[in-house]
Structures
1.
Amino acid sequence: MKQLTNKRAWTDFLAETLGGALIALGIYNFAVEAAFPMTGFSGVSIILYQLFDLPIGFTTVLLNIPVAILCYKLLGKGFFFRSLRCMLVSSALIDYAAPLLPVYQGSRMLAAVCTGVLAGLGYALIYMRSSSTGGTDFIIMAVKSKAPHLSLGKIAFAVDSSVVLVGGLLFRDIDGMIYGMIVSYIMSVVVDKAMYGVSAGKVALIVTDQGEKTAQAIETCCGRGCTILHSQGGYSGRRLQTVMCACNNKQMHLVQKAVRRQDPGAFVVVLESNEVLGEGFQSTSPDEEGT
């Protein structure tokens, strides 16, 4: 058990370090030189960097301290300390590692795309380890706990938009505001795709009178197990079976072929699945720490 805990801790740290490196690369090497406003505390830090030449990472840490103290009880000890560790790592990478690499000085649009993709991947890696980089993540979660009727998307959009708006108005750069919103959008899309796209797949619902044989045919062709549900025709009253099978996108074609061979008259419905958890898919390990 201790060995598993240590392995998980090292995996968390490596994922946070890689995620922090991607965020640092996106922010320092693309966003800063392009001079468009960023979201979150990173955006506030960039504004202070451009006004007073304050270190971005160090400023981010300072901004996080009062918010983290206020939100400690709301977020839970485990989430708080993981976020604190991740915040320090990512801030150090922004201030000391990113400056060692060349800064992109080309098209602002390409800079916005690269910032969104790199930072989005970085945040996704961190979120998948039940951690965060602090900052507006603390604020969003705290607001959510106090106003559960508001969606996280609405809260995040309000917070991010306000930072981009302030940055754009402060530097009188309308184009920068537009680029900042583009970065925000790309980041949100990349985070969703990275977090849920890996475990996404399809679900087939097969209505047939040969449930067991159909399930066996599917298992033989692609090794996927099935669940057989007892069903009944709404009009005919005929007793049937509904075979439910979850698989990845590539295997769905094999599943459909197996069904056609076994029962050409079967009624098949194929659904998109954003995330599939359990045996044969993404792990649902019980050792995940709560927030």
Note: The longest strand covers residues 239-247.
2.
Amino acid sequence: MNELPDIHKKVVGLIGYGKERTTTVSQIAKLTGLGSTTVRNIVSEAVVKYGAPIGTSNDMGRGGYYIISNEVEKGETVRNLRSRALKIWNRANVIDDLPSVNQEKFLL
């Protein structure tokens, strides 16, 4: 595994250890001065390219990123990501299948 670049180290260093210590994208963005999209991209790259064990939670009041501390958190993160991916995949398929007609009736 390659060593994390400095900006990745900065972002990952702000992420709490364990699901009880989640850190939101907005918290990281505020502390680093980076945009939310940039933070998300850095976290994704830290996981995919560098193997950082960063979990994600959508729990109310505890949503955000965390450093995975055990197998339960690892499993929860995998289920969470797969569920979100499936929802996005389904939405993309529905949009792809929409007829090419005037959709003005959906404008408010």
Note: Residues 56 and 81 are 8 Å apart (CA to CA).
3.
Amino acid sequence: MKIGIFTDAYYPEINGVATSCLNLFQELTLRGHDVDVYAPQCKGWEQHRNANVHYLASTPLPLLKDRNVALPNYKAIQQALDMPFDVIHTNSEFVMGSLGQYLSKKMGCACVHTYHTIWEDYTSYITHGLGDASARKFARRYSEWWCERFDRIIAPTAKTEKLLQFYGVEAPIDIIPSGIDLSRFAPEKHTLEDITSVRAECGVRDGERVLLSIGRLSKEKNVDQILRIFPALHSVCPDVRFVIIGEGPMKEQLSQIARDNSIDGFVSIIGAKPWEQIDRYYAIGDVFASTSHSETQGLTYIEAMASGLCVCAVQDPCLDNVIENGVDGILTGDSDTKLLTALQLAFSPIGKEIGKRAVHAAQPFSTEKFAENVEKCYIAAIASKAQERDSANNEA
């Protein structure tokens, strides 16, 4: 198949959408398909040029300075129109998604969309709390309108499928979890020398255990809750250091919270790390913590499990069929008290055993399985489009 992937986030940008699109591009290519990616230029894109990856001119988003928005020009659009795509796969509800959808209509090819982000959880970036209920309502209506324009929709989890159906989406929906390259995260892959080097880079002292958080440092990720209860955790487990890997608008605020609570000596806020090296940072962890409710899937949970960490996360529907509480991870309620209790359990011998079992539990989420399921979705979308054309021709 000739496949076009259109996305507003792509490698070397680091986030779930960028990683999902990169894995899909690589695996579909390995399966013999001819795949082209269209994405905005981002920091470091020049070092990763590829004949099949088209980085379009871009500008920083006004409200999210660490994100770029593409500026497609006539030449780029004409070049894409010359591609004999069998299917176009959009991964954005905005500029690049609109471009992909426009091209599919011009070409008459099948068009599939993955709904990666629950946009109603992000409206506060625009409203800052004023009229947020109306903004969330608009986000739901926009999501419904958007998804109804495609031959098929991919939802990373049943949580996302149910949400889209609640919005009123009637287009066929396939639940396909994004996959990861499990071999990269295997605990046995990293040498003691490598782990020692990364621990030193992150300020981890000899004998310290690591509570790890990896992801965007923004309000919806709720990392500040973990910082709030860390003094109480540290009083019980004084050998634990909290290592935070990521960038985002809350980075300085998190540093201030650590200083205000006199725990900055036991907290390391490292910043973002290159995606191709991120497995090295999981390798230093003992427990991976997340208190986010904004995930559609949350690849970091699976990466942590594949790395042999005990995942401690606030219960969320995106974790259904991913983590079995007490078996291959620990799920907790929203309150600080429940989170603290769960983290204490995670740092106990029980948590160490859970981490060992988590490696096996991550196996169904391979990139190979991901690409295989997306390929099936494409075939169904192409067949549906062909049937639609046949019906139109018969009526004519």
Note: The CA atoms of residues 193 and 199 lie 10 Å apart.
